[in-house]
Write a structure and sequence with these properties.
There is one protein chain. The protein is mostly helical and 375 residues long. It contains 14 helices and no strands.
C-alpha cells in the first residue's frame, strides 16, 4: 500500500501528464454523434450573455459554468479555436472575474453571497478551478495566461487552506470555521488539484497525501465510501456506504493508473454490486453524479483492466468500458429530450443544464481531448 500511495502522490503532483504517450483518441460512434451534438447545442443556447450557466434558472452558477464549460472543451474546441471557442472564452472570462482577492477568501473562485452558493461554495470553486486549469494550456495571450496562472495558483492555495483536519473537504471552508468533511466535495477538490498540476501549477504533496488517507479511512470493510468521517472519526462505519461517492473515489485513484491498488479493487467490487449498468433506466439516486465519475473510471479500465486487477474472470462478472458504453449510451439516447437536454426530475438532479453537461461529457470520453479524462 505504501508503494501504491507513493505512485498516487507522484502521479497527482508531477509525473501524471508526462505519461500520456499511450493516449488514443477515438471518434464517436456515428449512432451517438447527433445525440452529443444536440446536447452541446442545448448548452450553447442556454448560456447567459455574460458567459455563465445556471441550473433551474440561475442556481449554482459557478458549478454549472465549470461543468458546462468542460463539456464544450470535450468536443475539441479550445479557448482559441473550434466550434465552441466563443462560448468557452466567455465562460472562462466569467469564472476569472470571480476569483476573489484578499482576506480569508483570497483565491476562492465564486460568489458566496449568491443564495445558492452561500452554503456550498466549495463545489463551485472546485469545478471552476477544474475548468480554468483545462483552459490554461491553450491560452496563448501572454497577459491572459499570466492572469490565469495567478488565479490558479491562488485557487490551489485556497483549496489547501480549506482542507479539513481529517483530510477531506466540506461545502464550505475550514478557514470559515467549518472543519468538517464530505466525500463529494472532496473528490471535486482532488480533481481540480490534479488538473492544475497537469497544467504546471504547483500543488503541495501534503495536500494530496491527506486526501488519500481521508479516502482510505472513509472506506468500510465492504469496500464502499461513506458520506463523511466527521470530526474525530478514525474509520468509516459499515452501513453508511454511498455508491456515488465510491465511484467518485475510484476516479481519483484509478485515473492515476494504479491498477493493482487494493483500495481501488475494493471500491470496484463494491460498485459492481451497487451500481446497476443495464441501460434499463433504473435510478439509484444522484444518477448524474454517480455516472459522471463511474464512467471516467470504466473508461480508464477499458476492456482488459478488470482482469489486470482481479485475474481471469468470467465475462458476465467483469466490468468493461465497451459493455458500459453500449448499454448506458443507448439509454441516454432513448431518454434525451427533443431540445437536446436530459430530464432532471424526481429530486435526483438540479436541472437540465447539469444533466446535459454531465451526460455529454460522459459520451465524449473516447475523444480523449483533456488530460484530466484521458487513459
Amino acid at each position: 500500500m505504501k508503494i501504491a500511495r507513493a505512485v498516487l502522490i507522484v502521479c497527482l503532483t508531477g509525473a501524471f501528464l508526462a505519461n500520456f504517450l499511450s493516449v488514443r483518441a477515438e471518434e464517436l460512434p456515428p449512432k451517438y454523434r447527433d445525440t452529443v451534438n444536440k446536447g452541446l447545442q442545448y448548452l450553447v443556447k442556454n448560456q447567459f450573455k455574460d458567459g455563465h450557466w445556471g441550473a433551474n434558472g440561475d442556481q449554482y452558477p459557478v458549478s454549472m459554468t465549470g461543468l458546462a464549460g468542460m463539456a464544450l472543451l470535450m468536443e475539441g474546441s479550445t479557448v482559441r479555436e473550434g466550434k465552441y471557442a466563443k462560448e468557452i472564452r466567455r465562460a472562462a472570462d466569467w469564472c476569472m472575474e470571480r476569483s476573489m482577492r484578499g482576506g480569508n477568501r483570497d483565491g476562492l473562485i465564486g460568489n458566496p453571497d449568491h443564495p445558492t452558493e452561500t452554503g456550498r461554495y466549495m463545489y463551485g470553486h472546485g469545478f471552476a478551478t477544474l475548468f480554468l486549469a483545462s483552459v490554461y494550456g491553450d491560452e496563448e495571450d501572454r497577459d491572459r495566461r499570466e492572469k490565469l496562472k495567478d488565479i490558479l495558483t491562488r485557487a490551489v492555495k485556497y483549496i489547501g487552506a480549506a482542507q479539513s483536519t481529517q483530510g477531506g473537504w466540506f461545502y464550505t471552508s475550514k478557514v470559515d470555521g467549518h472543519d468538517q468533511d464530505e466525500g463529494s466535495v472532496t473528490i471535486t477538490q482532488v480533481q481540480a488539484l490534479r488538473a492544475c498540476r497537469n497544467g504546471g501549477i504547483p500543488v503541495p504533496k501534503a495536500i494530496i497525501k491527506k486526501a488519500y488517507d481521508y479516502l482510505k479511512n472513509s472506506t468500510t470493510a465492504r469496500g464502499g465510501v461513506v458520506y463523511s468521517l466527521g470530526r474525530g472519526g478514525a474509520r468509516a462505519p459499515v452501513g453508511g456506504e454511498r455508491p456515488a461517492l465510491t465511484a467518485a473515489a475510484i476516479s481519483c485513484l484509478f485515473n492515476a493508473g494504479e491498477y493493482k491498488d487494493e483500495l481501488c479493487k475494493k471500491w470496484f467490487k463494491y460498485c459492481r454490486e451497487a451500481i446497476p449498468v443495464n441501460g434499463g433506466g433504473v435510478r439509484i439516486g444522484h444518477d448524474e453524479y454517480t455516472h459522471y465519475y463511474y464512467a471516467q473510471a470504466l473508461y480508464i479500465l477499458g476492456d482488459d483492466g478488470w482482469e489486470k486487477l482481479f485475474g481471469p474472470t468470467p465475462k458476465d462478472q467483469r466490468l468493461t468500458w465497451s459493455a458500459y458504453k453500449d448499454s448506458f449510451f443507448d439509454h441516454l439516447q432513448r431518454t434525451q429530450n427533443n431540445d437536446g437536454s436530459w430530464p432532471s426530475g424526481g429530486g435526483f438532479s438540479v436541472g437540465a443544464v447539469y444533466s446535459t453537461a454531465v451526460y455529454t461529457t460522459i459520451m465524449q470520453l473516447d475523444r480523449a481531448t483533456l488530460p484530466i479524462y484521458q487513459r
